[in-house]
Design goal:
The chain is of the alpha+beta class. The longest helix has 14 residues, at 120-133. It has three helices and 16 strands. It has a six-stranded antiparallel β-sheet with strand order 2-3-15-14-13-8. Strands 11-10-9-12-16 form a five-stranded antiparallel β-sheet.
Length: 224
């Protein structure tokens, strides 16, 4: 089988969340951070005939990038053969028991209290501002009739900040994320937040079926 550029890009993004991955047979790939505060899943165009574990996903992707258009052969139990022309690499699988993997049960939000859409351009701007100003927190703030996304240092009332209005609301809330946990694939996302400190980011490109569950910080507040 061959892996599309899109699937390779998704796997590269997932490697930022967890450097190890257990891919189950089928066409859905899932990963979860070691701290279990980020879970990502995507339905891809390829159908994997067997389940397998990769301990060092960034390294595995580097091996694939040694080739222009490689074929991956999963017929062996212990390794995958990557080949193109007369060149080939064997990459051995890991023991699935050493991989931090998502739970079998599908994760759902306990409630849906706040929703909005964030474009790729706005999200990139926020993350760039956070990097430029060295700001650790991304906050979703509701008040004065609007929903505002702000990068800031929530522990410092006089810190620099940068914000964007993304919607309207009748409520008052402050949902806090760590900027370092916003490790999502570029794109526009529908965002739903539960006051139970969990959020879901769903890519609006339906062909990807790509979504992320990201935990909020425990100091988040919500008043309906």
């Amino acid at each position: 089988m061959k892996l599309s550029k899109q699937t390779l890009a998704i796997l590269n993004n997932f490697s930022d969340i967890n450097q190890s991955i257990y891919i189950q047979a089928g066409n859905k790939i899932r990963t979860i951070s070691v701290m279990k505060n980020i879970l990502a899943e995507c339905q891809v165009e390829e159908e994997f005939a067997k389940s397998f574990a990769i301990y060092d996903l960034p390294q595995f992707l580097k091996v694939i990038r040694l080739y222009q258009d490689p074929e991956l052969d999963f017929s062996e139990d212990n390794y995958v053969t990557i080949r193109e022309g007369r060149n080939r690499s064997r990459y051995f699988f890991a023991d699935p028991n050493v991989i931090v993997s998502p739970p079998e049960k599908q994760l759902t939000l306990p409630s849906e209290d706040v929703s909005f859409q964030i474009t790729q351009a706005h999200l990139s701007q926020l993350l760039q501002a956070a990097n430029t100003l060295d700001l650790p927190d991304l906050s979703v703030i509701g008040g004065a009739g609007v929903i505002r996304l702000a990068v800031r240092d929530k522990k410092n009332d006089t810190s620099n900040d940068h914000s964007i209005v993304v919607g309207e609301t009748d409520g008052e809330f402050t949902f806090n994320f760590k900027v370092e946990n916003i490790k999502i694939f570029p794109g526009t996302y529908d965002v739903v937040i539960s006051s139970k400190c969990l959020s879901e980011f769903t890519n609006v490109n339906e062909s990807q079926s790509l979504s992320y569950f990201i935990a909020l910080e425990p100091d988040s507040t919500y008043n309906a």
